[in-house]
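Hi R.,

As promised, here are both runs. First protein below:
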Amino acid sequence: MASQRLHAIDKLLEQGRFTQALEKIDAALKVSSLHGGLLQRRVEALLGLDRLADAELTAYQWTQAHPNSPQAWRALYRLGLENQHVALAMDAARHFNQLTEQTGELPVTAISESDIEAGITSPYTNAPVPIAELLQMDIGQLYLATRHFKEGHDVLKSAKEPPARNNLGLCLFQLGRFSEALDCFKENWDQEPRNLAAIGWMARIYLFLGDEEHAQGLAAPLMHTLPVRMEDATTQIETLLLLGKEEKALEAFDKAEEQSWWQAAEGVPALALVLHMGAVCHARAGNTNRASALWRKAHDLNPHIPCITDNLDDLERLPIHRHGAYTLPIDDYLPIPWLNTITSDHSDDPATDERIPVSNVYLEAVARISDPRAMKLSTALLMTRVAHGDRDAGNRLLAILKGKQGSFRERFSLGMALLQAGVIERGETIELWDGKEFRATRIQGHKIHNEPNPSKLSPSQQKRMAEALYAFQRGNLTTARKLLERLSRDAPDEPSVWSNLASVHERLGDKEKSRALIEKSLEIDPDYLMGRCNLALTELQQGNIESAKRYLDGLFDREELHIHEATALFGANAVLNAMEGDYDQAEQLLDSIAPVAESFGETERVDMYRSMLQPALFSSLLGKKGTLARLFRKTAE
């Protein structure tokens, strides 16, 4: 190893540039994989990045490459203790202390093998576990935590203890050996009926393979078996959520708090995941205050779990923007090597999913409880299957659309994708979750944006238009009128100038002038949506329903709308529906656009149209037999 390369790495480490140092170290290790100095520096870089498990594995590899290095064993000892791998840490202490007899260094504190065996017992039988088995469990768990599944499998394939056998099953799942993984978990459950981790993973693999009947059949033992350790409680709650048993998952969390191990676990970082699962249950049940308190307690115990901080951040958003409480990231639900393969182009849109037999029902279940990346990938895979004629995939996507996971905008976009794929009909009304409640939403197939529409105005004229609109919004109508009149002379072919000038005159009370200016905008561009919507409203104010219909006819056929155009279109049609006496349809139209408008900060426009509905309905009913009674009945309902 060239000394100048080591010097460059040391410089990066001194500067705290751990990512760059790690890149150089890993490149050098490809050439000199057993270089002790590089392995030592890799431990330092990983510690600087708070990647404790990777640092511990590197220290372990360092001891295997250099068994006579006291520094390697001391590093493994310290990291083993920090990561609560007691058997591995004490094995490192034994090797280190043997070497100190030759080097003269002070020995580290060690626990005898007999004391370890006496202090660590099986969670199910309370019988002592042989030190060799404990060491095997620690090393296997370390490989699993750092995603070295082949090495983990090789270490654990002869394991006997249920927790170690569970980890063997996880390695098999991650390696794509699903039938073997299922058999492993079955054997584990047969060996120990209280092994909730084995039951949970059996249910998950059945669902993964599309066997929903057997997966749901395991819900009963999942619900009725009490967890004997934290890891079991975590898997129990998570799997019940995956199976759609949200009330039972919350009950399972409540029962876990009553178990004897819970009090002993207070203050232990590993309890953070159980608290997190409980917070998810409470959040999904609508108890956001309780969820927030649990997540904060979990964060205090272990601030290094991203899903906890993600969920806390999600609660701080407006309801319409929330993704929804999620359990664990997608890496916990799909084989990581496969995920790395299909996303190797740094995209979550896989070209094909034929390399893995993941079922539609599993993808739906994952999307229903997992993070934004999982929802995006699951829906992308299901959309690919829809394109190949898979009707069940379409039904699964509909279930995701009608669920609570994902922000309103994300699910609205999914609705438009399903419209284009022919899964739903244009104009179909679907109950969509807006973060607080389900609202009837009509999927028209519009792509709604807030980017400026193409304009004939020059940059300086656009600036003047912005000044005019600002003056109008501030109530300075004289300034707005003067700026727009000047624009009408400089840019007479831009319909928005005349339309905005019409709005000023309407605010000034000159309705005839306002109408004339709107008509002027339509002379320039007969398809100008804002002009047609405004003229339709003018006709409705005068009771001319058929004329209003002519102006609005065909506008819903447009695929792309600016948010102002969308609110004007939906609002004008809502007023039209109210004038025709269909108040429910009018409200539904505004309910459909309201969440989108809120996401763009345009709620005032929707509120303006909503304020027109009752007067429009009232005027439509006057003079008809029984009209007032009908109006009062509608209001009471």
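And here is the second one, sequence first, then its structure tokens:
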Amino acid sequence: MHNLIARLNWLDAPGAAWLSGEANFRKQGASRKMSANIAELEKRRAAARLGGGQRRIDAQHAKGKLTARERLDILLDEGSFEELDMYVEHNCVDFGMPETIIPGDGVVTGSGTINGRLVFVFSQDFTVFGGALSERHAQKICKIMDMALKVGAPIIGLNDSGGARIQEGVASLGGYAEVFQRNVLASGVVPQLSLIMGPCAGGAVYSPAMTDFIFMVKDSSYMFVTGPEVVKTVTNEVVTQEELGGAITHTTKTSVADLALENDIEALLTAREFLDFLPLSNRHDIPERPSADAWDRLEPSLDTLIPASANQSYDMHEVLGKVLDEGDFFEIQPKHAGNILCGFGRIEGRTVGVVANQPMVLAGVLDINSAKKAARFVRFCDAFNVPILTFVDVPGFLPGTAQEHNGIIKHGAKLLFAYAEATVPKITVITRKAYGGAYDVMASKHLRGDLNYAWPTAEIAVMGAKGAVEIIFRGLSGEAQAEKVREYEGRFANPFVAASKGFIDEVIVPHSTRRRIALGLRKLRGKVLENPWKKHDNIPL
């Protein structure tokens, strides 16, 4: 038996050697194939990274603009970008399009981090078909938007596009609508930021318009539904791109955009700073970062900030700078409706949303533009569980036929509605005037304000003393009326009547404002408040 086994082993030895050689041959073949595949991969990656070619890249640089990928390099943490759909190609068969196929199809999509926090991004590539949106281009954007919704992370869009790809006809229009639908579904779920870094015209404007914030670049970005040529043809108006829909126009007149930045780099770095204030989604807590600014820091200069005369102004920025951590206030729409300030800051390292009347502009009065600006900001904060601080110095609503005929009633109601529906912690500080309906609107106790404070200089009344006396004591002489004005001021030009009714929780010394707010926010971190069930509300749009 042993001899037989030895004999069989001897007979099988050549076969074993042959099998071993075959395995080595296959292994070498697989290695060569893998090398070829890797070479092909690198070739395709290089083609995708080149976009529309060096000539178009040079043209983009000549305009002072970065390419789609260069922008992502600045926006995201180094080495964090993971691209998806690099090899996607368009599926258009008309107008000679099959002869011009560029991998990526004019948009770079994927995810990365900003200061270590996850974001999803798309960056349109103007060097490829002018960044025009095709069906596949739209599908790439929709894919990363869907992923952002699933995992709960912000969506940042870098827009630089000539609009719909005409060769694809209605397919490209359908692509836009798919993006629009996701903008709506993502609203209030994850923060959406649009950076307009080139042209954005026609239907393309409606996607950024539905995002939470829009940053534009001066002299190189434009947004309009119809361009200057169409305007001239239809209305005979002669207007430039900049005048019609440039960054200055949209951050001063229309309020479509929030900030106008000097160039691509400033816009991208500002976006990085801005994202630090925002939670990742409505499921995440607000961000927190270490702060060396003592929570109980006192500011004696606030005790003398309010002028002796009610007709004199002061800068509300000074109040915010002395209350917020390190005086850091990221203002939204600083060039539009300057009579109200909106933006983000931090208390004890945690993000807060700030709304404040600005006495330096129109005496801080509420008008159509300021009401719309603040209402949208308040609703954003409420959607993402960001506590709201409100600083009040408001003489009322702006009178006049222009305001009334343009709908101050409905527009003013937007701010009232926004504050009333908000369930996040709300702390209000009345620094000086709070007159009439504007007192109610500005996060009053009656709109479920959690902590409502007033400085000793606060004046809470239906209207100013002079106007009140002229109505109540219409028949009195000038001297008698002056006496009644002094009497009315003594009775109502203070916070104590409101405090006696419980409408003001405490009259505080100005220098302790930061300490009071910090303590208040600590108390309110566990706040639970729900509105009655509804499919959705019907804000007066």
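A quick note on the second one: The chain has a mean pLDDT of 90. Let me know what you think.

Best,
J.
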